[in-house]
Amino acid sequence: MDKITEIDPQTAAEQVVPMLDEISPSMCMAKWLWSSIHLTNGLTNSCFLPPLHKIDAEAVKKNPRALHNTPEKKQQRAMMLEGKQPDGCSSCWRVEAQGKQLSDRAYRSSEPWAQQGWEEVIDTGADGDIDPTYLEVNFNHACNLACSYCSPHLSSKWAEDITANGPYPTKVPHNSIDYFKSIGHYPIPNREENPYVEAFWKWWPDLYPKLKHFRMTGGEPLMDKNTFRVLDYVVDNGRKDLNMSITSNASVPEKNWNRFVDTVSFITEYDKLESFRLFVSVDGWGEQAEYMRDPLDFNLLWRNVNNYLSRTKDGLVTFIVTLNMLSMPSIKKLMEGILELQRIHNVTKTRRDENGKLIFYGIHRVYVDTPALHFPAWQSLKVLPKEFWHYGDECLEFMKANPDKNRESRWVGFKPHQIARFSRSLDFMKQGFSSLEEETEAQENFVRFFEEYDKRRGLDFHATFPELGPYYNKWKDRS
Predict the structure, then answer these.
(1) Among candidate residues 209, 156, 187, 13, the one with its CA nearest the CA of residue 96
(2) Is there a contact between 252 and 140 (Cβ–Cβ < 8 Å)?
(3) pLDDT band at 2 (very low <50, low <70, confident <90, very high)
């Protein structure tokens, strides 16, 4: 099967659609080659969009590959090969039904890690076991932040809050630990045996040579020993065709941060990997960013990112900006900051070709991704009053005015797919809620949640977001 050679993600996604259609109209490579595994509680999915489902703890003791190759995934693979649409992938089917945009099915299947495994996917079929080429793991839910839209099963800091104070008083009590336990999402305590972590390390020596992209998330992965065990393994077993990444809040204790940067500095200096990327989670600028990701120190985050970029050879950074309604007042300021980081840290190089012509090339080290928050509904972009949509529109215009295209004079700016991603998130915002009842409930829950959030965290919504205060008061008076 022909491979995609175009490197632009938008064009690559367009090229992959007819290739997928040759197999079936619902085919997606992610169902075979992409895996997210929550080793904390034994949950998995393929792609971020389908719901998580349980991994059989007994099955992984006998076969570690069962961490990825679950009966549910195999059933969905069979449906795709038959041209049927699994319910778990409904978000892609909705996008495709509109006929205006490509769904994530096309984007995922066109990425480099997917392109290298098509033949094996066909040979494996629906029932066989296959090793993913893209793997994301969560070793631990230990975290030093309790971000506003996170949960106690993903953050130990959140768990401390709920254990001490109980769930938040939204219409349906929010972040109840009992609820997460009842659906099997609550982490296995660190003091107890974890069959999923044990299975991972049994699988690792066989899996590692096949991976094209490996990503560690959390919790906060820089607070977990398994993260550094992986990094030390790379030091001893370098792979120049592997892309590795880690998702961090970039505001961990100094000793953790220095150990991380020291190790990655060695890895990048001696070319132990094809690339190493730091995904930094931050959703706004300054004090507003700190409010959303309590108790973030924004200045520490910014210093640490500069420290990482300065000390690693060609180390990459992608800011993961989960766009929610509280992001919007400062979103343009954040994009301005990211653009400035590009001017400082992106690398432009020149050389002469055989005819003496000056050739410009370089390394784009600082990126941004802007997915839209869907849950909890009361913090999604859809809650933002229309009067404030201009924040997003102004930011989009700023990104369009600073594209990454004129590389002969600079190596900075926003790439087409980054601009398209931000635009899609704004489209989601402007769709609004499906009913007035749904919108009203979200607004009332917004007040219930953040009133309690301020009380527990010692914060002040009105001082931090004065622009939104009048709407907060109106929603409060109504409820």
Answers:
(1) 13
(2) no
(3) very low
Q: Are 240 and 268 in contact (CB under 8 A)?
A: no
**How far apart, in Å, are the Cα atoms of 365 and each of 6, 50, 106, 216, 432?**
20, 30, 25, 19, 35
Classify residue 119 as exposed, middle or buried by CB count within 10 Å of its CB (0-12, 13-18, 19+). exposed
Contacts of 119 (CB under 8 A, 6+ apart): 1
pLDDT of residue 10: 79
Q: Give pLDDT tens digits for 385-438.
A: 999 999 999 999 999 999 987 555 457 899 988 999 999 999 999 999 999 999
**197-214: average pLDDT:** 97
Q: What is the pLDDT of residue 349?
A: 67
Helix axes 225-236, 254-269, angle to 10 degrees: 20
Q: Which of 96, 121, 117, 75 is nearest to 26 (CA)?
A: 96
Say whether pLDDT at 479 is over 80. Answer: no
Report the alpha-carbon angle 362-365-366, nearest 5.
135
E strands present in 103-238: 134-138, 213-217
Chain length of the chain: 479
> Quick check: 425 and 371 in contact, CB under 8 A?
yes
Sole residue written with tokens 């390394």: 363
Angle, vertex CA 147, rays to CA 344 and CA 186, nearest 5: 130
Helix axes 254-269, 298-311, angle to 10 degrees: 20
Of 382, 418, 380, 383, the residue nearest 399 (C-alpha):
418
Q: What is the pLDDT of residue 3?
A: 44
Share of the chain above pLDDT 70, in %: 96
Q: Give the model confidence (pLDDT) of 64-95 as tens digits.
A: 999 999 999 999 999 999 999 999 999 899 88
- Sole residue written with tokens 């769904």: 103
Amino acid, single-letter form, for residue 351: R
Give the helix ranges, DSSP H, for 312-372: 331-345
CA 408 vs CA 148, 201, 350, 351, 412: distances in Å: 42, 47, 9, 12, 11
Cβ atoms of 267 and 308 within 8 Å: the answer is no
**Token pair recorded at residue 304:** 């640490």
pLDDT for 264 equals 98
